[in-house]
Please model this.
Amino acid sequence: MSVLYLYGITRAGEVPRRLANHGVFLVEAEGRAAIVAKTEAGPLRATRKNLLAHADTVEEMHERQLVLPTRFGTLLDDEDAARDLLALPEIEQLLEAHADHSELTLKGTYEDSVLAEVSAPLEPLREAYRRSPTMENGVVLGEAVTEALHDRRARDVDAVLARLRPLVVDVAVAEPVGELGALDLALLVRRDAVGSVSAALDGVTAALSPPLHLRLVGPLPPYSFVTVDLPARV
Model:
């Protein structure tokens, strides 16, 4: 049985030829459009290939105009179900609210040297552990280093946000991954502000790194700021 795989919602228009050649098309209604492709019914495996294909489609469409992205694996029964979704008042509200918006992701990582840096004020605890390398002294030292790194991370995030908040519409803060993860931010920005955010980060980078290194990716669809909920009948 064939169903429709839903990539996202956009305004009525055209699908780039490369995507059309892979079976992507639009179901349109009243100036809105569902970005879909036919697929077989059943759960889709979240393999790297499938996830990348989903992101590739959504992001190429977003280069032309706003896409409200949907979760990987979202299926619709048919084109009527797509039109039911497009008729929801909240879809038009989201399209209007985010018409000029994109998302930038900003991730920061530390060099290994940050551990020595945050440990420097802890020399009395380090000396105590060297004199008596007991489990208790080791735990006390380890917890102190973790707390010092946490404090350093919080200061750096505050410094980055202080520089960027005047330039962005909204911010989503996630927990960074790994001991050396410094920050993980999603920035909702106007499309015409992307260059200003990038320029502001140059100043932040000069002030904070090394040992902090920042990586900005985008513009992307507003993944972290939009949720498209399907009506029960879809």
The first strand starts at residue 2 and ends at 11.
